[in-house]
Amino acid sequence: MRVLVTDISELVTNDPEADDLLGVCHDAAFIAEDGIVAWVGPASEAAAQPVDQVVRARGRAVIPGFVDSHSHPLFAGDRSEEFAARMAGSEYSAGGIRSTVEATRRASDQELEDNLTRLIAQAEHSGTTTLEIKSGYGLTVDDELRQLDIAVRYSPETTLMAAHVVPPEYAEDPDGYVDLIIDRLIPAAAERGVRWIDVFCERGAFTEEQTDRLLTAGAQAGLLPRLHANQLTAGGALKLAAAHGAASADHATFASDEDLAALAAAGTVATLLPSIEFSTRQPYPDARRYFAAGVTVAIASDCNPGSGFSSSLPFCIAIAVRDMHFTVEQALWAATAGGAAALRRTDIGRLTPGARADFAVLDAPGYRYLAYRPGVQQIAQVYRAGSLIAA
Ligand code: NIG
Ligand code: FE
């Protein structure tokens, strides 16, 4: 099956060989063969190619689908009141996680799955074509495993995050909970084909020493490390992520020059989460420092019921440009190719031969409109592997 996508005013390819960051082509076209990009070139040369189907962008822009490398969409319950209270002046603390844990434990598998599929559909309508999914609102062996059993059916990018907070049953014995994760959950997650392990390394959650044990045990079982690091305080979590060769250190809100140098040297991506600072009123990190230090930067949603409930990467891009000093180009790259780098993938986040044909047709003549028209739905159609998934 060969699909020609043509009549594109501005095609963002993220071709790493291009002279500009986004590999932008004007008046472009491309062909997807069995879901994989087979050819990219000028629209004038496309007419000569034999194809089974033609998608016309009608003079609009086409970008790679967003790669959202950080989300917590498996949960039940409602924390809108907590959000409203925070906006009225109370401060964010991760304590609210426990209320989601209670609701999630009470929910049936069907409820969890229905909530997940609704959130995935919303993300797809915002242009997301890859979504990483974390567990972490169960915090018992059975409740974490049922989340993972659901997650692996919807995404190959699944993450064991049983180390989100210490559950109340282990309040007096946090190391006992770490042992439980190591002895029971890590092997079971690996058996289920879960790809990643993540830890909330933060005061009030897990210590650096506990995080170190968890990541080491995860790696021994084949789970690759990523980390929630320096979200609320300037601890040692970023350096720890680098020391473990983590694919990504996420939040990274508080980062010293030394932390950034460590990430750059280790090739650990810093995944910034604009919606979290937006929804917690924490200070926005200044992306210019990360770029100047040579760090690869991704942008992800962190969609979760507590610290930020947006699944929209266009929204995150708009904030990143307005308040975090990304250029429009850096922000779009970070939400596509950057997300792919944070997941150690080279087959997504770009539209070059050999990549999966995941793309969004914008209802706009150029990619800059994503930041230029914040809050306006400009994602017209979304395709994964050459097939329409949202319109
Ligand atoms: O990524 N930092 C910890 N976990 C989530 C928040 C989860 C919650 O508040 O429910 C985060 O921000
Ligand atoms: Fe998170």
TrEMBL record:
Keywords for this protein: Cytoplasm, Histidine metabolism, Hydrolase, Iron, Metal-binding, Zinc
Names of required cofactors: Zn(2+); Fe(3+)
A GO biological process held by the record: L-histidine catabolic process to glutamate and formate
GO molecular function: imidazolonepropionase activity; iron ion binding; zinc ion binding
Gene behind this protein: hutI
Residues that, per the record, bind N-formimidoyl-L-glutamate: 137, 304, 306
Family membership noted in the UniProt record: Belongs to the metallo-dependent hydrolases superfamily. HutI family.
Pathway connected to this protein: Amino-acid degradation; L-histidine degradation into L-glutamate; N-formimidoyl-L-glutamate from L-histidine: step 3/3
Biological source species: Brevibacterium rongguiense
Co-factor binding comment: Binds 1 zinc or iron ion per subunit.
Protein name per Swiss-Prot or TrEMBL: Imidazolonepropionase
Residue positions binding 4-imidazolone-5-propanoate: 79, 137, 164, 231, 307
Binding positions (Zn(2+)): 70, 72, 228, 302
Enzyme Commission no: 3.5.2.7
Compartment(s) of residence: Cytoplasm
Catalyses which reaction(s): 4-imidazolone-5-propanoate + H2O = N-formimidoyl-L-glutamate
Record flagged with keyword Zinc: yes
NCBIfam families: hutI (TIGR01224)
